[in-house]
Amino acid sequence: MYAVVHEIHDAHRRNQADAEEICGFINQHGLAMLLRHCGAELSPVEILTDHYAATHSHPAWRYQLAPMDATVLFRAVREDPRASARLMAAALALLPGLPAECAAAENELRARLERNIPTA
Q1: How far apart are CA 42 and CA 11, in angstroms?
Q2: Which contiguous run of DSSP H or E holds residue 11?
Q3: What does 36-62 look like in DSSP terms, one character per residue?
Q4: 95: DSSP letter
Q5: Confidence (pTM)
Q6: How far apart are CA 58 and CA 56, in angstroms?
Q7: pLDDT single digits (tens) 31-63
Q8: What single-letter DSSP state applies at residue 83?
């Protein structure tokens, strides 16, 4: 809620928000924005949904925190040549619950992840 009050403060120059303003803010920006601002620890499917929902037109995540299908998310990471190490690690964490055909892509994704991680 701090993020909401902070945003309303920036818009109206005050340190309080009434119920109508909070609801309006959530209606405009969605619940997912609150998760990002409050530092909540997200599961692998939530990390991936938060990243790919905008590009896959998935308003259910933005407003209801309904994650996307894990198979769709895994495929999105595989098809994303710019996927970060965080996204690839989240996709690999999904493998135990995915269909067997996704397991065939595990080596490819692990190789990409190793190339992406800087050496110490």
Answers
A1: 29
A2: helix 2-12
A3: HHHTPPPPHHHHHHHHHTTTTT-HHHH
A4: G
A5: 0.75
A6: 6
A7: 787 777 777 788 999 999 999 987 766 788 888
A8: -
